[in-house]
Structure formats: C-alpha cells, structure tokens
Design brief:
The complex is a heterodimer of chains A (60) and B (458). Chain A is an all-alpha fold and 60 residues long. Chain A has one helix at 15-59. Classes of the chains: A mainly alpha (60), B alpha/beta (458).
Chain lengths: 60, 458
Amino acid sequence: MKYIFLYLDPGSGSYILQVIIAAILGGLMFFKNFWIKVKSFFIKPKEKTAEPEEQDDTTA
Amino acid sequence: MNPEISSHAASYKDRDGFIFKHRDNFYRCINASYFDNYRLLMQSGLYTQLTKKKWLIPHEEIAGNAELNAEGTIIILPQQIQYISYAYEWGFVMWQDAALLTLNIAREAIEKGMLLKDATPFNIQFINGKPVFIDTLSFEQYNAQQPWVAYRQFCECFVAPLLLQQYCHAEMGKLFTVYPNGIPLELVKSLLPSNAKWNLHNYLHVYLQASVRNGKEKQNTAAAKNFSKQKMLVLLNGLSNYIAKLHPKKGKTTWDDYYDGTILSNNYLQEKTKLVQSFTNSVSFNSIVDLGANDGHFSLLFKNTGKQIVAVDADVNCINALYEKIKKEKITNILPLINTLNSPTPAIGWNNAERTAFSERIKGDMVFALALVHHLAIGCNVPLHLIASWLLPMGKYVLIEFVPKADEKVQLLLQNREDVFDKYTLVDFETVFLQHYKILLQQKISGTERTLYLMEKI
C-alpha cells in the first residue's frame, strides 16, 4: 500500500469525485425515470387488470 | 465542573464535546464551539423529528447541577444504553441497517439545514432491536455548495465491509477490528474479486475513490464548489438504493443445522426447553447473556419479557438469521452479536481503551452456557477451571449444560485426535465449579447423557 498520501485529509480526496458520482447517478436516474415513463405508457392497461387479481390472491 | 470528571476513552476526537461518566450515568458535555449547531439541531425541529422516529437517541439538558455544569458548556444526559456493541460484532443485515439509518438521517437533516459531519458505525447502537444514532454532536450546519465531508468515511466504514461480506466471505466484517476507522479502499479493491468492478456502484464508491488515494486523480476541491442540494440528494439516494440491494455471501456454516443432527432431535430440544423454563422460573433475574446462542432458541423463550438479552454466537449465519427474526417479529429485548468465545473481541483503538473488550462490556444477571462447555474444553483445549473463572465475573447465575465424553457430539470432536482430556468427567466438572458456585438445581436431560445445572455464585 502506498503511504505517500497519508497526509491528505481523508475527506477532501473525495470532494471532486462526489461531483462526478452525483452527475453519473443523476444521469442514470434521469434515464431510469424516463424508461419507467415510457414503459408505463405502453403497459399501463395491463397493470390495471393485474391489480384485482393480486387482491383476489390475498383474500383467497 | 467537578475536576474528577474526565472524558470517556472513546471520546477524544471531537473538539465540540465529549462523553463522561458520573455516578453510573453517561453524560455528554457540549463545548461553546458547538452551541450554534446544537441550537439549530434543537430549534429546527430536526431533533424532535429524529427522536420521534426513534432514529436519534433522546436526551435531557442538565442545568443547575453544581457538580456537572461549568461555564461555557451545556451538559446533556442521553438515554442510557445497557449493552454497547461494535460493528465488528454485528451481522450483515445489522451493518446494512446501520448504513441505511445513517443515510436516512443525513437526508432528514438536509431538509432542516443540517448534515452529518461523520459517518461511522460507532455512532450507532442497537436499542430495542433497532439501530439508533447516538452521537448528538454529529450534526452541523449544511452548506449546499459543499459535498459531503463524511462521504469517504461512509464508504470505508459501511460500503467496504458490506462489499467484502458480499463478495469475499461472510466473516469479513471482522476486518473492521483491525481497521476501526475504515477499511482502506485500496485494500478493499485488492481483496474484491475482479468481477466486482463491473458493477457501476462498486466502481464509483470503491474503485474510483481508491484511485484518488493512489494519487492518480488530482485534488481539486475548488471544482467541487459547484455542488448543490439536488446533487447531494442524488448521491444519498443512490447510496441508499445501492446498499439496500447488497446481500451477504451465501454459504453453509457449521451451525446452520445444529438441531437437525441425530441426538439433537426435537425430543432433546423439547426436554431441554422444559428444563430451561423450569430452572429459570426458580430465580429472579433481569438480564441474560446467552453464550453460544446458535439460532437463539433459548433467548427467544424470553422474547419481549422485559429481560435484556445478549445472544452471542461465532456463527455469522445464525446471528444474521436471529436478527432477521427480531426485525420481522419486532422483538425488542434481544441483541444478537457475533463473537468467537475462545477469542472474544479485544479492547482496541487509542491506548487500547477506545473500544472495550467483550468480557468487560457484556455481563448479565444470568449466563446461559448451553451445550458450550465441551466445545471450549475439548474443541479449544480450555481446562474446566479456566472456563469456570471466565464465566464467574459475567453473571450471578449460570445455566450450564455438561456434555460428557460418551455423547456422540463429543465423540465427533475426539474422532480425529488423541483423547488427552482425563480431567473431563462429570465429577471433575462439579468439583471445579463447586469451588466458585453452589448448585441450585440439576437434572439429566432425558434420552441423553447430558446434565443441566443452575448454579449461583458463592
């Protein structure tokens, strides 16, 4: 293990990374939400019919 | 303040305050440097909100006590905790729940204009079956332009141990004993299998950060000033979703099916359970230390009774399963802990005093040592007199089972080794224990050669 950087403040090393990570995760979330919207647009009617079936299962 | 009052050995890092013990109670002294943050915590509604959810330990302010109060300080008396445990004694899910609690608190705090300045599992204790944040001084005013100062610490103290337990071995949490301030990410990277880096979140939170420590990335804190509340919430939510999906490495352990063995049949368990119930009914006690608790069968006999129980076992799968049960059934009085009893968790940290040893911390009125003595005496070569003197300071009563050599489980322990245990007989056992204890009750467990004793310290 390299000990050269032991004098670095342990927190500060991750500051710039957090900017990058937040951007990547933010982007990922954007596409995920977008995909969910696209999916729900197409399969919305199916979900509605599935709900009563699930309820039937729990009461049976 | 009373000059005899000094800070607790674990409370030296924070300039904003310290913990101290005074007449059996633990208090927290808050220094003037933290007053603004303390007022914000109390007046913003964050304290009320977090304590209402039982996420943060409640406290009361002490005023007008000449012995405790000093000028320029605030003294608070937090809810007292009977059993302190450390992350390296927790099962995977306990660690995971502690991580999620830290993130949840960070998110709530942001909404009230505060943030956590550190993120270590030592800030969390399990109270009434649930993790509770105990460091009232961890909150500081939130600056939306700054990233999370505790992010790297969070990764080293929560993400790293969880990942090692998921990818390498279920017992890797024990590595935290060696690195209680966080497992270095470079070390984590070298231990993880190569396929771990193909997960984007693993890559971001471990591999990428490890490379910063290596110096491959230039430090540029100025660029980080573009941070925002929205970015912070994305980071915290991303971490929460990621951690919630982690799971412990699957693998069968020694004690997974202990009671499925031949002699350890339902009948044996039923007989022993009856005896344990009738023996324990004969004396009064408020707490139990269940040593070698396995799946917690005997601890669970006392669930939600008001007796505080610590169930200890070396088997991580057993402790994980017990914690899952506690969660599912909302059991409030059992604390399950991983510990190898022939080498319990030591005193560690600064001056070997920061985190106390298991034997110093975990004591009860009643000690259960059920089907344990033969493992220590024959499996680990610990002489009977040392077992007796080890149990002695742990509690007033001991409920102990003697398993003789004729027992098939002892035969199993002896099958591949020379029998050098001349002094392991029922007579030897009683002789040794009667030097320290008096026998209150004893009975053979029907259908076996095993004997159960209830003893009281002389």
